[in-house]
Recover the amino acids of this structure.
DNA sequence: TGGAAACAGTTGAAGCTTAAACCATATTTC
DNA sequence: GAAATATGGTTTAAGCTTCAACTGTTTCCA
């Protein structure tokens, strides 16, 4: 068997079926995200990421989360989250509070205004998601998609070579 | 039946199964894209969008495309494409040429250097796509996903109200 | 023919994201 | 228990994206 160098020669290219699937996946995804983002933006003045942040906070105990955990939960870098929270703070939807237990840390806390905006945004958003995604799929397809995405979610490799 | 105003009240929220699916979809997608982008970026110095542009050009007759068509094909705004092409031009991977038939227009043309970079990048990229996506799915799942994404791809609504 | 409107594309400024450096506090480790 | 290292988070600058305005065709249509 050939050594697995990084820029290896003999590449297993995608066959026709795989290629078609990959293209559909990329374009469908990008269109959906774009539409949902624009919809939220124009209707509620927040983007998809901001919405995600508000959702995460609203579901956390005390409607608050530590920056790090929040960053992981919405999958953005620490830095980006920090900027994002600064903006949300400026809009009055979130506020920061220093953490007593670990004095390096900060809480991001959903404000009352933030909750109101979130509630309002969520209504329109879920309607959009329905008409753009769920209404076009059968129950069976939803189930299939859930299974597929669950296996694709983790970012680790499927198995380490020679697991100790 | 209630009038379908924009911010309608009685919202059909997602049930548990739908919600789980939606979350998996969002996070899986975002992780995959992030990894592939970073991989291309560090290994070949181009991002996923730039890669997409080079691919599109390489497959077009004469390895050239009009700006507008290219923008549609990789799903970015005219403006963003223009900036992007400017950068790719600076890197020497693409060049512009005025269009004779329609003098408003420009061709974006893949250069020899661009083709070299694309070839090199493609090898690593397809390997990553395989190990991150296809290797984790069964043939059957790939087929299912293709069907699902094909129905989700178009951005028009499923049907107009009272189609005339 | 002569606009009016649409289209292809660019541009510049403002806003957002990323990357790297940085500060302060916790945690290890010897 | 002191130094080394790791962690939580912010900050600054550079790079990228978006938005709106703009130029120069082309098309429409009366």
């Amino acid at each position: 068997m050939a050594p697995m160098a990084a820029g290896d020669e003999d590449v297993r290219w995608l066959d026709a079926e795989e290629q078609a699937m990959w293209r559909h996946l990329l374009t469908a995804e990008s269109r959906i995200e774009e539409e949902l983002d624009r919809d939220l933006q124009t209707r509620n003045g927040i983007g998809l990421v901001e919405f995600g942040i508000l959702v995460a906070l609203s579901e956390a105990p005390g409607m608050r989360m530590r920056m790090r955990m929040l960053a992981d939960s919405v999958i953005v870098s620490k830095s980006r989250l920090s900027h994002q929270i600064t903006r949300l703070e400026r809009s009055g939807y979130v506020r920061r509070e220093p953490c007593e237990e670990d004095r390096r840390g900060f809480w991001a806390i959903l404000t009352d205004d933030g909750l109101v905006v979130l509630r309002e945004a969520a209504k329109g958003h879920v309607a959009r998601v329905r008409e753009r995604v769920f209404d076009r799929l059968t129950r069976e397809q939803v189930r299939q998609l859930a299974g597929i995405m669950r296996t694709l979610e983790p970012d680790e490799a499927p198995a380490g070579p020679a697991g100790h």
